[in-house]
Amino acid sequence: MNTVLITGASSGIGESLAKYYAEQGFCVYACGRNQEKLTALSQQHSQITPLAFDLNDKAAIFGALDKNVKLDHIILNAGTCEYIDNAKQFDGDLFARVINTNLISVGYCLEAWLPQLNSGGQLGLMSSSAVYVPLTRAEAYGASKAGVSYLAKTLSIDLASNNIGVSCIHPGFVETPLTDKNDFPMPSRITSVQAAQAIYLGMKQKRYDIHFPRRFTLVLKTFALLPFFIWRKLAIRMIKE
What we know:
Order of helices and strands: EHEHEHEHEHEHEHH
Pfam families: adh_short (PF00106)
CATH superfamily: NAD(P)-binding Rossmann-like Domain
Distance between the termini: 54 Å
Number of helices: 8
Strand content: 15-25%
GO molecular function: oxidoreductase activity
Number of domains: 1
Family: Belongs to the short-chain dehydrogenases/reductases (SDR) family.
Organism: Pseudoalteromonas piratica
Protein name: Short-chain dehydrogenase
Helix content: 40-55%
Largest sheet: 7 strands, parallel
Number of strands: 7
């Protein structure tokens, strides 16, 4: 039986991923902080094993998974989003929280679990379509996800000799508890189930760039082709409006 480890599995995209992978016959190691939700998830699917711990705790990460377990897929999905509402009064503590959760903890996870990823396996890193173009208030979130995208690119080169593939996941807006907090329009928003299906297919096909919904991400990719000074003018104009 194929195995997958998924972080951030107690809600949102991670929860839908855990369910969908289990439905496809995978043995799923579902990681998250909420023991109650993870236990409920495992009761719904016998192939799901709950692993409750805090991803900001390096020791907890290293103690979470039995070292004898071999993995076919790893999806480092867990993350957070906080916005810098006043750039002039920059919140360094907020910036550190987001960077630690979205980027530094990924490094801990890679150190702990990459040795357990089988040859021919696939590593998925959760970035964001926000990395395509700079977005207002997203200094912390965008910087953390840009770091993830760069990390994915370098790993895709360095892990090739180990016969391990890397997928960088760039979602648009997805219906999750995280995006429910947003106070702005979210065009082309899709469900977490749709997101999970797109990620599973991309991982199965060993695609590097998994982005969705394409009608939204392709628009951002097009904007990214513009010289920055043009995008900057457009973004400033949108803020004023």
